[in-house]
Design goal:
With 173 residues, the chain is α+β, with helices and mostly antiparallel strands. It is 43% helix and 11% strand. A three-stranded mixed sheet has the order 1-2-3. The longest helix is centred in the C-terminal third of the chain and has 24 residues, at 149-172. Mean pLDDT is 76; it is low at 119-126 and 132-137.
């Protein structure tokens, strides 16, 4: 009597089986890639949806996770290309899933609403408060820390243009 594995092997040629294993590994490596890139929490809120014409299509359950993945997009694309060189991966696409359309992710409760990202994105320091020219302080005084004179002049000119445009808009309406 033949074993089930022997029958299946006889039905499918070795090349097809190898390709099927490769696709299975492709769709199941997501969590590993997230951990490798330092965003392990994203694995619970994103998944590989498809591979279409060389483009890895990823879905997320919250816009914040999309933003986090976008910061790692080129690295993830590089990792996919390295792991699966025979798949001809040429691009990476991230989209937000439709509300209520969330596949089963092991260890994640599908009834629970998506969590907001907890991973901190780099955020610029808040801009210092503008000094009031009417109080006798020149607006250019904030530029003293800039050593490059050309850059300093360009930024000051840009600030004057923006202020002039804003005043013109106020006078217009």
């Amino acid at each position: 009597m033949k074993r089930a594995g022997d029958v299946i092997s006889a039905l499918f040629d070795e090349g097809l089986m190898k390709k099927a294993k490769s696709y299975s590994a492709f769709f199941s490596c997501w969590k590993d890639l997230m951990e490798k890139n330092g965003i392990a929490d994203a694995a619970d809120h994103s998944w590989v949806k498809n591979l279409d014409r060389g483009v890895v299509q990823v879905e997320v359950d919250h816009p914040g996770w999309k933003q986090i993945l976008q910061t790692k997009q080129s690295k993830l694309l590089s990792d996919f290309r390295y792991r699966f060189p025979d798949m001809g991966i040429s691009g990476f696409s991230i989209s937000l899933c439709k509300p209520g359309v969330r596949p089963e992710i092991p260890g994640v409760d599908p009834a629970k609403p998506p969590a907001r990202p907890t991973a901190a994105l780099p955020v610029a320091d808040p801009a210092p408060p503008k000094k009031n020219p009417a109080a006798g302080v020149s607006p250019e005084s904030g530029y003293d820390a800039i050593k490059d004179e050309s850059l300093k002049e360009t930024l000051m000119r840009l600030e004057r243009n923006i202020a002039g445009n804003a005043a013109a808009e106020r006078n217009k309406g």
